[in-house]
Write a structure and sequence with these properties.
Elements lengths: L1 H5 L2 H24 L5 H22 L4 H22 L2
Helix pairs in contact: 2-3, 3-4
Length: 87
């Protein structure tokens, strides 16, 4: 288990689950007409994906600039998500 974290593969595994979740939610939306819209879903998952990539960079001793870039992208996705939901 420690190798899974040390190699950053845990992040890859989680991203795989996120992609599966994305596909399933898009299929449900297309079949039933209910659920989260595709753009809203992509923006929401982009924030999580960016945070995971920042974690992966940290686990692999990436540069602080790489981590900062992923965190900034996560912030942008989060703000976009909030802006779309704000009523």
């Amino acid at each position: 288990m420690s190798e899974l974290f040390a190699s950053g593969r845990i992040v890859d595994l989680i991203i795989g689950f996120m992609l599966l979740e994305l596909m399933l939610l898009i299929i449900v939306r297309r079949k039933t007409g209910r659920g989260i819209g595709t753009l809203d879903l992509l923006i929401s998952l982009a924030a999580g994906f960016s945070l995971l990539m920042a974690l992966r960079a940290s686990l692999l001793q990436g540069s602080w600039m790489t981590m900062a870039a992923w965190l900034l992208l996560a912030l942008c996705a989060h703000v976009a998500d909030l802006a779309r939901r704000w009523r």
